């Protein structure tokens, strides 16, 4: 089978397509034929720069290694002791640094869940990481509740689009920031107010919010403390919280990690099945090296609206 591997870090040319043996499951493992995978910030940043400072030591990859986080696919083989899955099941989930591959080997205890077979597996390849990160920042750490005012930075991206929908599902009033070109999309997601970050200063337009969800960079995070009301919260997924500043202002700051339990994954799949949570696919790419390289280049160019996904087969 084909698999993407890295021998070093740098530009897109460090990615290599190699041939490896098909995985064989142990007693408590499953094999999934990959249908689709998401193009995600951790993979693009790690490929370019290596493991980042906020990455816990126990999950820092060691060269040579593959890439990839979330996936969708079909179970093709199960171990003798597997009871949670059957051959032919359609599944979505997470397999850390392991999804840029035609087949994925997983423990049956992993964060993987079945989805109805009538659902299109292509957008679901970009489901888990965006939803898990949005869930952590908005629900688990953000503790969004009905009636609260929530400001979401980077609301049109793969994570932000889901954060908007999750916050709205929780009953919050949502203010979303993005580019002028993304305003209509953010409103379509359910945002109550939108801010064009390129021409408008959110610090002059927003105040006394219950929660800020920062999905952009450190500068936006630094400017966001002032708009959170005392006793409120601020979460960030890619810039480290200034604990002293948060304490000084009487707010709770959390660096949010994108993970979900199996139960939480099943709950958000249920929202997706009901049409309360959507994955907007911005662009698809084939699982071949030129297309994968282009996917990374397009992601790095910024202005991402929805998800970019890599699809396997025709």
UniProtKB/TrEMBL annotation:
Example GO molecular function: RNA binding
* Pfam families for this protein: ADH_N, ADH_zinc_N_2
> What sequence ranges are listed for the domain Enoyl reductase (ER)?
10-310
Keyword list (alphabetical) reads: Cytoplasm, NADP, RNA-binding
Q: Which GO terms describe its cellular component?
A: cytoplasm
Question: Subcellular localization, per the record?
Answer: Cytoplasm
Keyword Cytoplasm assigned to the entry: answer is: yes
What is this protein's name? Putative polyketide synthase 45
Q: How does it assemble?
A: Homotetramer.
Supply the SMART domains for this chain.
Answer: PKS_ER
